[in-house]
């Protein structure tokens, strides 16, 4: 099913981009705006949090911030994956190869993700994942909040770190809940609803609202721009699948087994070592992609906020009222 969805999405993208889009563009014509068409390779492409961004601009801004903070977020993701591996393999009392099975097939690592959240032999696995997810989400949010405060006024209500942690934990529990089903639709459901959960967390942390009030605020923002939300969520999901395809289980199995031949290890030792490395790599990719989801959801939130409330536009109008000139023309009394 996953292979069919991936093939169909690739085919749909080719038809859309190379057939339908050129026809529509030719019918409407090409408008030349005032934007400089030259993009500097070292220019700041992080975007403006004050303006309404299109899907392409959101995508570009997301991965500009993702690239800028990649080293820091990769270190935190590796630390979280290491904590998970140490806790599970030291306290489970079973050999790693008997706990997790990675199929040597297409998208084998993605299909193993639900087992890393819910396992029949490790009942406390969700309890371990929730604080890991909450800690990472909170760290990623603080980075994006620092960037947002360069463009926007900071929130009027400052929350205590413990309150922020509890709100992030509530959202992390919702993310873990999405992965508990262990069915064929689990990852598709996670791809569609994870950005909404992160938007919910963004509202709780940025606006200082409670979890219940943030739900009503979430639907207030999303339902008016549902198409924008779904399009951006599917785009991020496609990138997430590509993340895992770069290090699929088949590639890692071949790489690790070739290393094992040089060390002449026993097959059982080799299987356990490969399983540990596969679990670490799977969680590392999942956590590093979580940072991109947090960034994208935050940028989408500020776009939806400007569409709904026009906060920055109202501020600009007030500033214009205080000036004696509008675009160089003296105002009339």
pLDDT averaged residue by residue: 80
Amount of helix: over 70%
Largest sheet: 2 strands, antiparallel
Q: Flag low-confidence runs.
A: none
Total number of helices: 13
Structural class: mainly alpha
> First CA to last CA: what distance?
69 Å
Specify Rg, calculated over alpha carbons: 23 Å
> What is the approximate shape?
globular
The strand order across the widest sheet is 1-2
SSE topology string:
HHHHHHHHHHHHHEE
β content, as a range?
under 5%
* Total E-strand runs: 2
Secondary-structure blueprint:
Layout (H helix, E strand, L loop, with lengths): L1 H27 L26 H14 L1 H22 L4 H4 L8 H4 L13 H24 L12 H18 L7 H22 L3 H12 L3 H21 L2 H15 L3 H43 L1 H11 L3 E2 L2 E2 L3
Antiparallel strand pairs: 1-2
